[in-house]
Amino acid sequence: MINILIADDEEHVREELTYIVSKIQDFNVMPPVNNGTQVLKMLTNNKPDVLLLDIEMPGMDGIEIGKIIKEMQDPPYIVYVTAYDNYALDAFKVNAVGYILKPISEKDVRKKLDLVKRMIQTVEAKEHESNTESANNNRIAYKIDEKYIFFEQSDLMFAYAKDREVFLRIKEKDYLYNQSLTKLESKLDPSKFFRCHRNYIVNINEITEVTAWFNGAYLIKIQDMNITVSRNRVKELKRILDF
Q1: DSSP for residue 168
Q2: Domain 2-135 belongs to what topology?
Q3: Three-state DSSP class for 65?
Q4: CB 18 within 8 A of CB 24
Q5: Which long-range contacts (CB under 8 A, 24 or more apart) does 145-149 make?
Q6: Burial readout 101-117 (b: 16 or more C-beta within 10 A, e: otherwise)
Q7: What does the pLDDT look like over 177-207, one tens digit per residue?
């Protein structure tokens, strides 16, 4: 449900808007208010999704409230309600969806709220797509015969290139990977994986030992493998592991 707050200093307008909106699917009418102070209080405590906001109210008017809302991190959508049509520029400046002219027409209210609903649905769809993409990015696929097997990034101990092929160490087994090490690196979480050498990517959380080697290089131990850290990557390794 989309929560909508009606704010107008005229009681008959509040009642009329409440009646109209209550008939529109997917909208829930919150208790109406009649001044700017009450609007700000409701924004703090109840967080409406949409405001039907009168412009000319005693004390703080609708445009002043709009300026405050514009600076909020997750502002509600504003639709102004006014008897005058000379507020278009002011409404634009505070990112309002638009305005409804008094006397109120049910057709105008429905039209504006339909626009708001579509805007909310668009934002939600983008958020869902982003969350899905983020979830998918936590998984990697490798190919066995004609099948693709998916695993969580956290299951990858390390990856290495050998004889122009790339292998993944998942738990205690090595699996052939059908893309380059660089391509794999682009898919991995950089806060959890480290390209220690042109032929190796390691899971930082799986490192059990670090040993100084020769010529400024180091060795990392993961399971039964001693993995070389190139000299030009040692500084970054020390920063990551804080030693």
Answers
A1: E
A2: Rossmann fold (3.40.50)
A3: helix
A4: no
A5: 149/175
A6: ebebeeebbeebbeebb
A7: 888 999 899 888 888 999 999 999 999 999 9
Residue whose token pair is 């050998």: 162
Task: Look up residue 205 and give its DSSP letter.
Answer: G
Element containing residue 6 per DSSP (H, E): strand 2-7
**b/e burial code for range 119-148 (CB count within 10 A of at least 16 → b):** eeeeeeeeeeeeeeeeeeeeebebeeeeee
Q: How far apart, in whole angstroms, are the C-alpha atoms of residue 36 and residue 221? A: 64
In the chain, what percentage of residues exceed pLDDT 90? 58
**β-strands 2-7, 50-54: how paired?**
parallel
The string of pLDDT tens digits covering residues 140-171 is 877 776 778 888 899 999 999 998 889 999 98
Cα end-to-end span (Å), the chain: 52
Q: 163: left (phi > 0), else alpha (psi -120 to 50), else beta?
A: left
Report cis status (omega within 30 of 0) of the bond before 32: no
| Residues carrying CATH 3.40.50.2300, the chain | 2-135
Q: What is the CATH number of domain 142-241?
A: 2.40.50.1020
Structure tokens at 107: 């057709």
Tokens representing 126 are 């983008």
| Spatial distance between the Cα atoms of 98 and 103, rounded to a whole number of angstroms | 16
**Model-level pTM?**
0.55
Range(s) for CATH 2.40.50.1020 in the chain?
142-241
Per-residue pLDDT band at 135 (split at 50, 70, 90): very low
